[in-house]
């Protein structure tokens, strides 16, 4: 019986070795065939790009490597790398960052001419993965590309939130938060504790934002300390400043963002903000504070939404529908 079992094990081991040799042979053949094809594809694209460049008057730029272009030349602090390149190639510099062509302008006169004379052609924001994801697909004023909808949203922002009257209306809460920060720093100094002013100032900004948007603080009363929103803002800032490989290789952005973990972190951060907004909306509905205008940004948004819906009812003769401004939640 043992001899039969041993023979079966040896047969199984030989099968495994055979399958392993077949897989390794197939893998090596795949590499041998695919590498020349990839090289030919890169050379063909480069030759095509050179032909297009020769027919156009393009800005000068350093030679790049296949596939990654000039990404390897942007090291450490990007602004210093770009400054060194501009010293070698001039104030108008063309770089190929992966599959994306970028124009670097380091001359104030040229920048003024570009943004003043050709502002409509160059005023839009890039459609970056992080910005697109965190702005509900481009619905936020600060991160969305230029469009008629962005123009209308910006007008509402300036008139109802950034004009002198609403800014003066929130001056008392801003002054109170500054006093709270000063008392927190003074108490820490009196007890001999060190104070991280960077975090303290971020906490101050978070508290002012919470008072302006929601009409309440998220930090303990009488203290200026890191709270829930402060941590979320930290994580959002890290994501906005992070290198996202998919933005430079749009043809492979899905799997690149998944492999590098960017997509997962974006999903978690977006979920945090979405849950916060949803929770505050339900809280206002539960307490009945959503109907009045208490001067906070949330109440102003509710009032604008209801005015727009009422206008839709009068215009179209039915309730609901798209108000054209995208005030709804995430889809």
TrEMBL record:
SUPFAM superfamilies: Cytochrome P450
Transmembrane segments: 22-43
Protein name: Cytochrome P450
Protein's organism: Zingiber officinale (Ginger)
Keyword Transmembrane in record: yes
Sequence similarity: Belongs to the cytochrome P450 family.
Keyword terms, alphabetized: Heme, Iron, Membrane, Metal-binding, Monooxygenase, Oxidoreductase, Transmembrane, Transmembrane helix
InterPro entries xrefs: Cyt_P450 (IPR001128), Cyt_P450_E_grp-I (IPR002401), Cyt_P450_sf (IPR036396)
PANTHER family for this protein: CYTOCHROME P450 71A9-LIKE ISOFORM X1 (PTHR47955:SF19), CYTOCHROME P450 FAMILY 71 PROTEIN (PTHR47955)
Cofactors (names): heme
Gene3D superfamilies reported in the protein's UniProt record: Cytochrome P450 (1.10.630.10)
GO molecular function: heme binding; iron ion binding; monooxygenase activity; oxidoreductase activity, acting on paired donors, with incorporation or reduction of molecular oxygen
